[in-house]
Design a protein that fits this description.
Elements: H1 2-119, H2 124-136, E1 138-146, H3 152-159, H4 167-176, E2 178-186, H5 193-205, E3 208-214, H6 220-234, E4 236-244, E5 248-249, H7 251-259, E6 267-273, E7 300-309, H8 310-319, H9 329-336, E8 343-346, H10 357-363, E9 370-371, H11 382-393, H12 397-402
Parallel strand pairs: 1-2, 1-4, 2-3, 6-8
Antiparallel strand pairs: 4-7, 5-9, 6-7
């Protein structure tokens, strides 16, 4: 009995303990779960925060890097533009320096020529006396060599060949009555560097006639008119000649040729021609007033060289305000004499070709007055070839001093 009772008594006791421990374990498990769950939530949030922070920082770094790259690219473009601008400015600066150097070289040449002139100049009183005597005496012929500012080398080549220099030129004027001058006007800017260079050159050589005329290729008719009017008022001569600065001339032969006609009035001598009138624009020697002439020009002397007697030069001087100017100066001169009782003399010795043409004629005893190339309207490359032409076709220096005009 006792053992049964104990057994009965112990069964309820084990059941009660089990429930208590179960409850305790449940509460403990719950609390442990709450603690663990809370901890994991914090870690999760922390990790999420780190992730978000990392993402934001990455985006910021990306923006910063992109901004740096963009700025770098802009800086490169600005630097490139700046470098290109500096290169362009440098190019312009170099061009400006080149022009400045050229101008300084011209001014230096003018200054040197002026200095040489000052060191060897003739007294002013002597120059005045010569000017007065020049107006009183008569000359045989005045040779005007048409030239331009850019033709210094051509002038020097003529000085070195058929144009006497220094005492010989003065002797030619005094003994033979022959005046030879380069003829040139003024630049568009009066007193500019071009005019100063010519003035210095004239002080050195004393062989330049300055005209009251503004230089320009399309102004040759006006220049020709001014030249004859100026020359006839400066020198009382029998003949007045115009020649280009790329033509070779034998002075003695020219004088002898003109001397044959000195008893004739109103002489107009040269290589007479009557070429077609060029009406099409853009071609060389285009004639804007072509409708006045028809298909061909009237007979007139070619423009490389021609001569007129004093009475015709005086006519031009007295009527220069009403004489019409055409584009081509040789046409203008011929037009001024239409209607006048003028003797047109066609002498082909005034338009010989360069060697061998003029050389063959010289060997045959028919020395040319003037030589040039028709294809170039003058001696082709005259600066370099005129010495050869002078050597092969020149009349010789003694011929000039033996000639009797």
């Amino acid at each position: 009995m006792t053992s049964k009772n104990r057994g009965v008594t112990e069964r309820p006791s084990r059941s009660v303990v089990s429930k208590k421990w179960s409850l305790f374990l449940c509460l403990g498990s719950f609390c442990a779960g709450m603690i663990f769950t809370n901890r994991m939530w914090i870690i999760s949030e922390t990790k999420s925060g780190i992730t978000r922070t990392t993402t934001v920082e990455a985006e910021r770094l990306k923006l910063v890097s992109e901004g740096c790259i963009t700025k770098f690219q802009k800086d490169i473009k600005l630097v490139s533009k700046d470098i290109f601008g500096k290169v362009t400015n440098s190019h312009h600066a170099i061009q400006t320096i080149d022009k400045t150097i050229s101008n300084l070289e011209m001014e230096l040449a003018a200054a040197k020529a002026a200095q040489e002139s000052i060191l060897s100049r003739v007294p002013i009183s002597e120059g005045i006396d010569k000017g007065e005597s020049r107006r009183k005496r008569k000359y045989f012929m005045v040779v005007g060599i048409n030239t331009a500012f850019s033709s210094r080398k051509r002038r020097d080549s003529i000085r070195a060949t058929w144009m006497p220099q220094g005492e010989k030129r003065r002797k030619l004027e005094e003994e033979k009555g022959v005046i030879i001058r380069f003829v040139i006007g003024h630049g568009a800017t009066l007193g500019g560097i071009l005019d100063r260079a010519i003035e210095a050159e004239d002080k050195k050589h004393g062989d330049i006639l300055r005209l009251d005329h503004i230089e320009g290729y399309l102004e040759l008719s006006a220049k020709t008119k001014t030249y004859f009017a100026t020359a006839v008022n400066l020198w009382d001569a029998e003949y007045y000649i115009k020649v280009d600065d790329d033509v070779h001339v034998n002075i003695a032969t020219l004088g002898e040729t003109l001397a044959r006609h000195r008893k004739k009035p109103r002489i107009y001598i040269g290589c007479m021609k009557s070429g077609p009138v060029l009406s099409r624009k853009g071609v060389r020697y285009h004639e804007p007033e072509y409708w006045k002439f028809g298909d061909k020009y009237f007979r007139h002397a070619t423009g490389q060289i021609y001569a007129i007697s004093k009475d015709l030069a005086t006519y031009i001087s007295e009527n220069q305000d009403v004489l019409h100017k055409y584009t081509n100066e040789d046409v203008s001169l011929g037009a001024w004499f239409i209607g006048l009782d003028v003797q047109h003399i066609d002498d082909r010795r005034l338009c010989c070709g360069t060697p061998p043409d003029c050389e063959w004629k010289a060997q045959a005893g028919n020395i040319c007055v003037a030589s040039f190339d028709w294809t170039c309207s003058g001696i082709c490359g005259s600066v370099y070839r005129i010495k050869e032409v002078h050597r092969r076709c020149g009349e010789g220096e003694n011929a000039l001093w033996k000639a009797a005009f």
